[in-house]
C-alpha cells in the first residue's frame, strides 16, 4: 500500500539518523464512509481551519519523509509531508536558555501524574523550553495501519526515550496502544504548508516528555507557544503560580460553555474535566460562567475599533476603558488569563494616552511594559512611550476630537 525508500540525509539542516525514509500514498481511495467521517471532523473544527477539506484528495496528494532531528540532548523522530519538510529552516536556531529547577513531575489527587511548581513564579515567568520527542501529521494519508506507522516512529527513538513515552497515559479505547499514547498526549503545533492544491493540514501532533505531562484546566495557569525557528515549545505562567501548585494548560478553547467543553474533551481525550472552573456549586453558577465565557469569546469582534472611538466625538470618553476593565474582571473570575489579559492592559494604556491623561497613561503603560519581559521589541516600544508620552502616536486624539478638556475618569 505504500512505497518506501530509505536513504541517508546529507542536508546541512537538522541531522538525520538513522536513515531518512520516504513514504508515498497508494492511489486506492479510502472507503467513502471513512472519508465522510473524517471530512465532517475536519470541516467542523475551527482549529484545523479547512472548511472545504476532502480526505480522498488529501490522501492521494501525500508523500512523506520520516527522519530523526538531532538536538543537543536527544534525537526526535519526525514524520512530515515532503512539502512541509521543505519549508522548515535549513538550520534551527538555538532556543533561549531554559530555566532550571522550576518544576517536577509528581502524582496528582486523581492518581495520575502532573507538573508541579518547585518555586513561586510570577506571571510571565518562563517555566520550561522543550523540543518535541516526536512529530507527525494530524491526519496520516498512508494506506497502512496507523499502528505500524507509530511503531516505526517509536522504533527510531533511543530505548530510554521510548520507555519514557510508553509511561505516558493512554485514555483511548478505540486504537492501538502507541496511537493511543500519541492521541492522548500530543499537542497541536502549527507548521507552514506549501501553497498547492490539497495541502497538508497545518496542525501536527507533537509529543513532549514534560509538557505532555501537564494536565488540562478550564482556567489554566500556564500557556505554551510553539516556535518553528527553534523547533521548540515555550511554557509560560499566565498568572502567579505558587510553589507546589500544579501547572496546567488548556487542551481546547475554554470560552465554550461547560457542556460544550465536556463534550469536546470527552470526544478528543475520553475524560470529563473536574477542574474548579467546572465543579461549580449550582446551575445558576454554571449559567453565569457560560455567559461570561461567551462574552470573552466575542469581546474583540464586537468592540469598536480604537481609532473609531478616538475620532468619534459622540462616543463616551470612557466607553472603551470600561469595556476593557470589565474584560479584565471577567478574565480573573474565570481564570482565563491565557486569553492574553495583557492585551487589555495595553488597550487601557492607549486609551489614557489618547485622552492625554499623563498620570494614568504612565501607570498603565508601566504595567504593559512589565508584562512584556520576554518580548524585547514590545518592551522597547513602551519604554519609549514612558520616557516621552507624547511620542505615543495617538497622544491626545480623543481629547481633541471630544472638543473639551476631560477630567479624571
From TrEMBL:
Residues 8-18 have a biased composition (Low complexity). PROSITE patterns: SET. Residues 1-25 are annotated as: Disordered. InterPro entries: SET_dom (IPR001214), SET_dom_sf (IPR046341), SET_domain_protein (IPR053185). CDD domains: SET_SMYD. It comes from the Eukaryota. Residues 98-252 form the SET domain. This is SET domain-containing protein. It comes from Asterophora parasitica. The lineage of its organism: Eukaryota, Fungi, Dikarya, Basidiomycota, Agaricomycotina.
Amino acid at each position: 500500500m505504500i512505497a518506501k525508500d530509505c536513504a541517508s540525509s546529507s542536508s546541512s539542516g537538522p541531522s538525520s539518523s538513522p536513515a531518512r525514509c520516504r513514504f508515498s500514498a497508494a492511489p486506492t481511495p479510502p472507503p467513502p464512509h471513512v472519508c465522510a467521517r473524517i471530512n465532517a471532523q475536519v470541516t467542523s473544527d475551527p482549529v484545523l481551519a479547512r472548511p472545504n477539506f476532502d480526505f480522498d484528495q488529501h490522501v492521494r496528494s501525500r508523500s512523506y519523509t520520516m527522519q530523526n532531528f538531532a538536538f543537543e540532548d536527544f534525537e526526535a523522530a519526525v514524520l512530515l509531508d515532503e512539502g512541509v519538510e521543505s519549508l522548515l529552516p535549513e538550520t534551527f536556531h538555538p532556543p533561549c536558555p531554559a530555566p532550571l529547577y522550576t518544576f517536577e513531575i509528581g502524582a496528582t489527587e486523581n492518581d495520575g501524574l502532573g507538573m508541579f511548581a518547585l518555586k513561586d513564579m510570577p506571571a510571565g515567568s518562563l517555566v520550561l523550553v522543550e523540543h518535541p520527542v516526536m512529530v507527525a501529521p494530524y491526519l496520516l494519508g498512508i494506506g497502512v495501519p496507523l499502528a505500524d506507522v507509530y511503531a516505526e516512529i517509536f522504533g527510531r527513538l533511543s530505548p530510554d526515550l521510548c520507555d519514557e513515552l510508553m509511561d505516558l497515559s493512554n485514555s483511548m479505547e478505540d486504537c492501538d496502544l502507541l496511537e493511543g499514547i500519541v492521541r492522548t498526549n500530543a499537542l497541536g503545533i502549527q507548521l507552514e504548508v506549501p501553497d498547492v492544491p490539497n495541502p497538508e493540514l497545518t496542525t501536527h501532533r507533537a509529543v513532549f516528555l514534560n509538557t505532555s505531562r501537564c494536565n488540562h484546566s478550564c482556567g489554566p495557569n500556564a500557556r505554551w507557544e510553539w516556535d518553528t525557528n527553534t523547533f521548540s515549545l515555550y511554557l509560560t505562567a499566565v498568572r502567579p503560580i505558587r510553589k507546589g501548585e500544579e501547572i496546567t494548560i488548556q487542551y481546547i478553547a475554554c470560552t465554550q460553555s461547560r457542556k460544550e467543553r465536556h463534550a469536546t474533551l470527552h470526544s478528543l481525550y475520553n475524560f470529563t474535566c473536574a477542574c474548579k472552573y467546572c465543579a461549580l456549586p449550582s446551575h445558576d453558577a454554571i449559567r453565569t460562567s457560560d455567559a461570561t465565557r461567551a462574552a470573552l469569546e466575542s469581546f474583540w469582534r464586537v468592540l469598536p475599533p480604537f481609532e473609531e472611538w478616538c475620532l468619534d466625538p459622540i462616543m463616551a470618553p470612557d466607553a472603551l476603558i470600561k469595556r476593557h476593565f470589565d474584560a479584565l474582571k471577567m478574565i480573573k473570575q474565570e481564570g482565563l488569563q491565557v486569553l492574553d489579559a495583557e492585551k487589555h492592559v495595553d488597550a487601557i494604556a492607549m486609551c489614557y494616552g489618547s485622552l492625554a491623561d499623563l498620570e494614568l497613561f504612565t501607570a498603565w503603560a508601566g504595567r504593559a511594559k512589565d508584562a512584556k519581559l520576554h518580548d524585547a521589541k514590545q518592551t522597547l516600544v513602551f519604554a519609549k512611550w514612558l520616557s516621552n508620552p507624547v511620542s505615543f502616536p495617538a497622544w491626545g486624539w480623543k481629547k481633541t476630537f471630544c472638543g473639551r478638556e476631560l477630567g479624571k475618569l
